[in-house]
Amino acid sequence: MGTDLVKPVPTLIAAYDDDATAALNLNVLEVVPEVCNRAGCDSDRSGLAHAALWNAAGEHIGMRLRSRCKQAVTDPRLRLRVAFAEGVDLLTEISCTFGKPGLPIPASGSR
User: Using CA atoms, how far apart are residues 22 and 78, in angstroms rounded to an integer?
Assistant: First the structure.
């Protein structure tokens, strides 16, 4: 678990909407095709892009994979077809921030 103090929104967005975080988020697509191929379903990595969005009410950044085009993934074993319109997001991670009163401090008092 990682924690961070609340910072100005532009600073947080810059920290999570960078090349390194995009590479980590898109790495999910390295695993998904492997799983999909074993299951016999189809997927297209080039159809998704990284996006990081600030949620002010929840004080967190949501990492997402955004569909670049209208597409669908089909899993014949499950008889399942999931369609994505262009611009639709798939949430992959939430990174929370804390104000000082909300920062979880271990009971031992260690920092």
Answer: 30
Main-chain phi, psi angles of 15, to 5 degrees: -70, -30
pTM of the model: 0.69
First to last CA, the chain: 14
- Asked if residues 100 and 5 have their Cβ atoms less than 8 Å apart, the reply is yes
Q: Are 82 and 72 in contact (CB under 8 A)?
A: yes
Q: Which two tokens stand for residue 38?
A: 């074993």
Structure tokens that stand for 99 in this block: 């104000």
Enumerate the H helices of the chain as residue ranges.
9-16, 19-26, 28-39
d(CA 91, CA 83): 15
Computed over every residue of the chain, the mean pLDDT equals 77
pLDDT tens-place string over residues 30-75? 666 665 666 565 666 678 889 999 888 887 888 998 999 988 877 7
